[in-house]
Amino acid sequence: MSGPPDFRIERSELRAEEEFAEFGYQDLEYYVDFRGTFHKLPPCPDDESLEASGAQVAIVGAPLDDGTSGRPGARFGPMAIRAAPTAFGPFETWSIQLGVEPFRVLNVVDAGDAPVVSSRHARGLRVIHEKVYRVARTGAIPIVLGGDHSITYPSAAAVARHVHPRSLGVVHFDTHADTADTVGGSLISHGTPMRRLIEEGWVAGRNFVQVGLHGYWPEKETFDWMREQGLRWHTMVEIEERGIDAVIADAVAEALDGPDLVYLSVDIDVVDPGMAPGTGTPEPGGMLPRELLRAVRRIVAGVELAGMDVVEVSPPYDQSEVTAMLAHRAVIEAISALAARERA
Length: 344
Hints:
- With 344 residues, the protein is an alpha/beta fold.
- The chain has helices spanning 10-18, 47-53, 77-82, 102-105, 121-137, 152-163, 193-199, 220-229, 236-242, 244-255, 289-302, 322-343, and strands at residues 57-62, 108-113, 141-146, 168-173, 208-213, 232-235, 261-267, 305-311.
- It has an 8-stranded parallel β-sheet with strand order 2-1-3-8-7-4-5-6, with helices on both faces.
- α1 packs across α5, α6 (152-163) packs parallel to α7 and α10 runs parallel beside α11.
- It is globular, with a radius of gyration of 18 Å.
- The two termini are 35 Å apart.
């Protein structure tokens, strides 16, 4: 039986980075932001402590925004999501919707941040890949806090590498398809991760499902490529006409048309910027927060989740931290749904 695909970040951009002289690289493997862990969970930032913890779920920070094509700031996303005003503590979380106290049912820890160095994009993606892979290898489900959407490429590839030969379906919430071939001449940006995952064989196009697309990007030629690959997508118009429950039921069935595991990627810009302004590429006409949270609960409660990310929270544009609060809550809803499955 053949092995998993190769993680090919070294082509083009990594070689280009090698042309730059080395500078003082500090290994931040053990770093957890000074504001504290996600939801005040126990820190397990190294392999030994994570394995010893027996964690079922692990939070991973991916503080990288070198893949942005517009407004930067998503590198501060992990810090903001961890410190969101909803983060009262692990024993003050009772899910009214699901009737479960997730942190009493599941062993959840914070594995710290991947050791990303600003302006070294390809290297940053590689260390994110290795960090997420090592977390998944312990048996914990990685939930990755971005960072721009380019971090989904190394994160989902790491999960697919771990679960091989089992196959992975992806449900992707976003305003944009993120399936461009290049953005600004770059193969790896926040507009290309889904194309890289499909082209490199980490996920089959027919099991890649996108929810919430609207606006004016990408162009028709990219959608033609998506059709050729068998991607399925559900636009905001469909959500408005059919309702979020019907759309999510179809999305899950499509992602699991062959695979038995799901990776969930949530770009916060899928939510209307009137309610989630803190993001780099806002687009009017998006989902409501309650639609996103309901969708996350329903998906995670109904599938075997292999990994997840929440990306594109940009604190410099986040009035009153409402976007960070929503991203934090999306993670809590996912953990609560995992706990409900565990309890059942």
